[in-house]
C-alpha cells in the first residue's frame, strides 16, 4: 500500500514538472498582451508607437465572407484558341444588370483545356470567373504561344481625385498604430467619408533618412521629395470636435518636423468591385527554362476594390500568379499556388505573389522556384498582410522590395530562403530603405535581416526561427528583435488574434 502511494506521488511529481516545463516554454511578446476576453493591450514605445492593428484587410476588411455567386453562363472546352469564346462570355455577362447582391453572375468554365493566345479582360463590376478545379485534371487555362502578357487582366479605369479642400493634421506627432488625430477644422467631414491621409515627402526627411546619399553606381537615382508623397486610403469612423477617427490605423508616424500630414475627401470614379477568380489551373507555354517571351502574370488586378482570388494554381509564368497594382484595394488572395516559374533568375522576375496596393490580404499560399515570393513594391501603403504562406526553392528574399513600403505584416511565413527588411542601398536604381512598420511574426526562415530606418519608425522581428543576418550594408540600426529561435510564441498568429479582438 505504501509502495503504491509512493509511486502515485512520483507520477504526480513528474507530471507536475512536465506541465511546468510546457507552461514555461510558452512566451508572449513585450509589444502586446492578449487579455482573457480576447482583447489586445498594445505596449507603446517612448513616442507612443505601437504595432498596428492589421485585421481590417482583404475583401470588405474581412467583415463579409466571400460569396458563392450563381452561375449565369457555362462554357465547355473548345478546340483552338478559346480566348475569343471566353472573352465573348465575359462581355455578355458584363452587359447584364447588376443584381441586388451586387453581382452580374459567375461564368463557369467546365473541366478541360482552354488555350488562350492573348489576354482576357474584365472591366466591370460583379463578375466571377470560376473553374472546376485547380489541377491539370481541372479547368486548365493555358497562355499559349509567345508574348509576354497577363493571362487575365481585371481593371477599372480612372484614378483618385480630390473632392474637398485639404485640411492639415495639427498634432506634432501622430504615432504609428493611432486611429485618431486632430485637424485644423473638421467642418465638412462626417462618419462614412472616404479620405486620403496624405503624408508629404520632404527634403529634410529624405536627408535624415540618408536617401540623398546613396552610394552612386551607373543608373542610381537619389530619392526626391516629390516622389515620396504617400496617400493612405481611409474611412472616417467618427468626428468629435476637430478629432477625426479612422477605420484603419496610421502605419507610419505623422511628424510635424517632416511636414506632418493632411486629409482630404476623395472619389475614384471608374474603380470596379466584386470580381472573383476561383478554382482554376493556369499554365504558360514556354520554350526553355530562361524563356521570357511567354505568359508573365496569371491574374493581374488594378483599379479594383473588394475582390478576390481563391483556389488557383499557376505554373511556368515568368512573374507571378497574382499581382495587385497600386490601385487594388481590399483584395483577398487565398488558398493558391505559384509553381515552377520560367525566366532568367534575376531582375524583375518571379514575384510570385506581388502587392503594390492597400489593405490586401494574402493567406494560405505556396510557391516554388520564385525569387521575391511574398513582396511589396515601392511606396506601398498599408496595412497589408501575408499570412500562413510557404515558400520552397526560393532564389531571393521575401519582404518589402524597395523604396519605403509601410505597414506590412508577415505572419507565419515558412521559407527556405530569407526575409529581409533593410537598406538595399544602390541595388536597382537606388532601392534604399525597403520599408517601415514591417512586422515579421512567428516566421521560419533560413535567415533574416530586420533593420530600423534612421528615422520615422521601426521594424519588428518577433519569434523568428532562423539565422539573424547582418544585412547588405554595415552600420545600419538593428530592428526590434524579440525571441529569436524561441518556439511557442503566443499568440501563434498576430493576424488571427487581431481578427478575434476587434
Layout of helices and strands, plus pairs?
Blueprint: H1 2-25, E1 27-28, E2 32-34, E3 40-42, E4 71-75, H2 83-94, E5 105-109, E6 112-116, E7 120-122, E8 127-130, E9 139-143, E10 149-155, E11 161-162, E12 167-168, E13 173-174, E14 180-182, E15 194-199, H3 203-208, E16 230-240, E17 243-246, E18 254-255, E19 262-267, E20 272-273, E21 276-278, E22 281-284, E23 295-302, E24 304-310, E25 313-315, E26 320-324, E27 328-339, E28 353-355, E29 361-368, E30 374-376, E31 381-392, E32 397-400, E33 405-415, E34 418-421, E35 435-441, E36 444-450, E37 460-462, E38 465-468, E39 480-482, E40 489-490, H4 494-501
Short description:
This is Pectate lyase. It comes from Pedobacter hiemivivus. The chain has 502 residues and is mainly beta.
Average pLDDT, rounded to a whole number, is 95
Residue runs with pLDDT of under 50 for 5 or more positions? 1-23
Structurally, the number of domains stands at 2
Task: Please give the radius of gyration in angstroms.
Answer: 24 Å
The number of helical elements comes to 4
Distance between the termini: 56 Å
In CATH, the topology of the largest domain is named Pectate Lyase C-like
Structural class comes to: mainly beta
Q: How would you name the CATH homologous superfamily of the largest domain?
A: Single-stranded right-handed beta-helix, Pectin lyase-like
Beta-strand percentage?
Answer: 35-45%
Question: Could you please describe the fold and organization of this structure?
Answer:
- The chain has 502 residues and is mainly β.
- It folds into 2 domains: 330 residues, Single-stranded right-handed beta-helix, Pectin lyase-like (Pectate Lyase C-like, 3 Solenoid); 104 residues, Elongation Factor Tu (Ef-tu), domain 3 (Beta Barrel), CATH 2.40.30.
- Helix content is 10%, strand content 39%.
- The chain has 4 helices and 40 strands.
- It has a 17-stranded parallel beta sheet that branches.
- Strand 2 and strand 3 form a beta hairpin.
- The termini are far apart.
- The N terminus is likely disordered.
Amino acid at each position: 500500500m505504501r509502495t503504491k502511494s509512493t509511486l502515485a506521488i512520483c507520477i504526480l511529481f513528474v507530471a507536475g514538472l512536465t506541465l511546468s516545463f510546457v507552461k514555461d516554454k510558452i512566451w508572449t511578446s513585450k509589444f502586446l498582451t492578449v487579455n482573457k476576453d480576447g482583447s489586445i493591450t498594445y505596449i507603446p514605445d517612448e513616442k507612443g508607437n505601437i504595432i498596428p492593428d492589421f485585421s481590417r484587410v482583404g475583401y470588405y476588411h474581412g467583415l463579409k465572407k466571400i460569396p458563392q455567386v450563381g452561375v449565369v453562363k457555362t462554357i465547355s472546352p473548345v478546340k483552338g484558341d478559346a480566348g475569343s469564346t471566353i472573352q465573348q462570355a465575359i462581355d455578355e455577362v458584363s452587359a447584364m444588370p447588376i443584381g441586388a447582391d451586387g453581382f452580374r453572375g459567375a461564368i463557369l468554365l467546365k473541366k478541360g483545356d482552354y488555350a488562350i493566345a492573348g489576354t482576357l479582360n474584365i472591366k466591370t463590376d460583379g463578375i466571377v470567373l470560376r473553374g472546376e478545379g485547380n489541377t491539370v485534371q481541372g479547368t486548365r487555362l493555358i497562355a499559349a504561344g509567345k508574348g509576354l502578357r497577363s493571362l487575365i487582366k481585371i481593371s477599372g479605369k480612372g484614378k483618385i481625385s480630390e473632392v474637398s479642400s485639404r485640411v492639415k493634421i495639427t498634432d506634432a506627432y501622430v504615432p504609428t498604430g493611432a486611429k485618431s488625430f486632430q485637424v485644423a477644422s473638421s467642418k465638412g467631414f462626417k462618419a462614412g467619408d472616404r479620405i486620403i491621409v496624405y503624408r508629404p515627402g520632404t527634403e529634410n526627411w529624405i536627408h535624415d533618412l540618408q536617401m540623398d546619399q546613396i552610394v552612386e553606381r551607373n543608373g542610381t537615382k537619389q530619392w526626391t521629395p516629390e516622389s515620396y508623397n504617400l496617400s493612405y486610403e481611409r474611412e472616417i469612423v467618427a468626428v468629435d470636435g476637430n478629432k477625426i477617427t479612422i477605420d484603419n490605423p496610421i502605419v507610419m508616424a505623422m511628424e510635424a518636423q517632416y511636414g506632418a500630414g493632411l486629409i482630404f475627401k476623395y472619389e475614384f470614379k471608374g474603380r470596379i468591385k466584386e470580381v472573383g477568380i476561383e478554382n482554376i489551373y493556369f499554365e504558360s507555354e514556354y520554350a526553355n527554362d530562361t524563356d521570357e517571351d511567354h505568359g508573365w502574370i496569371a491574374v493581374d488586378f488594378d483599379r479594383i476594390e473588394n475582390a478576390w482570388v481563391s483556389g488557383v494554381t499557376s505554373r511556368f509564368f515568368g512573374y507571378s500568379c497574382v499581382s495587385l497594382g497600386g490601385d487594388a484595394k481590399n483584395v483577398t488572395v487565398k488558398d493558391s499556388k505559384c509553381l515552377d516559374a520560367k525566366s532568367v533568375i534575376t531582375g524583375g522576375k518571379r514575384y510570385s505573389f506581388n502587392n503594390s496596393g492597400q489593405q490586401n490580404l494574402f493567406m494560405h499560399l505556396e510557391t516554388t522556384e520564385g525569387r521575391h515570393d511574398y513582396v511589396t513594391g515601392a511606396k506601398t501603403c498599408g496595412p497589408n498582410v501575408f499570412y500562413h504562406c510557404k515558400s520552397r526553392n526560393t532564389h531571393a528574399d521575401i519582404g518589402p522590395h524597395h523604396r519605403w513600403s509601410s505597414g506590412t505584416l508577415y505572419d507565419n511565413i515558412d521559407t527556405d530562403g530569407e526575409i529581409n527588411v533593410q537598406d538595399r542601398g544602390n541595388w536597382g536604381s537606388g532601392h534604399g530603405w525597403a520599408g517601415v512598420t514591417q512586422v515579421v511574426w512567428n516566421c521560419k526562415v533560413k535567415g533574416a535581416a530586420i533593420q530600423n530606418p534612421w528615422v520615422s519608425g521601426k521594424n519588428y522581428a518577433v519569434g523568428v526561427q532562423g539565422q539573424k543576418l547582418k544585412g547588405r550594408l554595415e552600420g545600419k540600426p538593428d530592428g526590434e528583435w524579440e525571441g529569436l529561435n524561441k518556439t511557442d510564441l503566443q499568440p501563434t498568429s498576430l493576424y488571427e488574434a487581431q481578427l478575434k479582438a476587434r
